[in-house]
Amino acid sequence: MDLNSDLGEGFGAWKMGDDEAMLDIVTSANVACGFHAGDPSVMRRVCELAAGRGVAIGAHVGYHDLAGFGRRALDIAPDELADEVLYQIGALDAFARAAGSRVTYVKPHGALYNTAAVDVEQAAAIVDGLRRYDPALALLCLPDSEMQRQAEKAGVVTYAEAFADRAYTADGKLVSRKKPGAVLHDAELVAKRAVDMAAGGVVTADGTELELRPDSLCVHGDTPGAVELARRIRDGLAEAGVQLGAFTG
Questions:
Q1: Is residue 30 within 8 Å of residue 242, measured between CB atoms?
Q2: Domain assignments of the chain as residue spans, ordered by start
Q3: Assigned CATH topology for domain 2-239
Q4: How far is CA 63 from CA 35, 68, 163, in A?
Q5: Where are the beta strands (DSSP E) in the chain?
Q6: 115-139: b or e for each residue (b if 16 or more CB lie within 10 Å)?
Q7: Using CA atoms, how far apart are residues 9 and 27, in angstroms rounded to an integer?
Q8: Is residue 216 within 8 Å of residue 19, measured between CB atoms?
Q9: What are the CA-CA distances from residue 175 to residues 114, 145, 166 (Å)?
Q10: pLDDT digit string (tens) for 187-201?
Q11: Which residue of 48, 85, 127, 208 is 20 to 30 Å from 136, comparing CA positions?
Q12: Residue 85 φ/ψ, nearest 5 degrees
């Protein structure tokens, strides 16, 4: 099982999360590419840290929305979105290669992730940008989403993701961050959910059982107490006999 986190989300003097501590725990790092967060120096530093630890590097592409941290949906033409995805992958891969590694997968961020889960045109645009850079890159996304369907149609390998620190609706979507209880902070609960997810399921916000078959589990790097959450998840998975390893090489 892979354990991933969204990292490199500082920008200039604005700091967010503890990237170095998280990179001692996770097996894959979704690194911000400068559009929703991150800047060249942050990207370089996180890629160097990830490469030094053998952590897989993924391009965490988002809407061009620094002020909104990429969590506001934008009405953007598919061709323009594909270009922006291509641009972001290329920027991060330059730093990854300079660090002796490379980008091996793409994971959309925030509002782009949620929109492309249900919007055919935006999902296809993400896949188009990915393929134009390197069709061998994988796409990390929600299972049974438009992103997964459009990627598979285009011959792009997908990996299913589940969120240990987020609440789910009965139809497998993430509860909106605008609603109370959408983000989970109890370390014991989050660790238990991670073990349940690795075993194939999770209890949704309304108490129903949801079947999941994730290849990777995510803990958000900007969540308060993220390092402790990630550490508890890793320890809980190890105690349950779940071996951790990146889903891409």
A1: no
A2: 2-239
A3: TIM Barrel (3.20.20)
A4: 6, 9, 21
A5: 2-7, 28-32, 56-60, 103-106, 138-141, 158-163, 201-203, 209-211, 216-218
A6: bbbebeebbbbbbbbbbebeeebbb
A7: 18
A8: no
A9: 10, 15, 7
A10: 888 899 999 999 888
A11: 48
A12: -65, -45
- Cβ atoms of 72 and 36 within 8 Å: the answer is no
The answer to whether residue 103 scores a pLDDT higher than 90 is yes
Dist. CA 197–CA 30, nearest whole Å: 20
Write down the residue that tokens 């497998």 correspond to: 172
Read off the tokens for 124: 């296809």
C-alpha to C-alpha distance for 68 and 63, rounded to whole angstroms: 9
Whole-angstrom Cα distance, residue 130 to residue 83?
9
For residue 54, what are the contacts with CB-CB under 8 A and spacing of at least 6?
none
Give 43-89 as a DSSP string. HHHHHHHHHHHT-EEEEE---S-TTTTT-S-----HHHHHHHHHHHH
Q: Cβ distance 210 to 201 under 8 Å?
A: yes
Q: Are strands 56-60 and 28-32 parallel, antiparallel or unpaired?
A: parallel
DSSP state of 11: B
Q: What are phi and psi of 3, to 5 degrees?
A: -125, 115
Question: For 35-87, how does the pLDDT look when each residue is reduced to its tens digit (9 = 90+)?
Answer: 999 999 999 999 999 999 999 999 999 999 999 999 999 999 999 999 999 99
**Locate tokens 């994971």: which residue?**
107
**Alpha helix stretches (DSSP H) within 159-221:** 187-199
Residues counted in the chain: 249
5: its two tokens: 């986190």
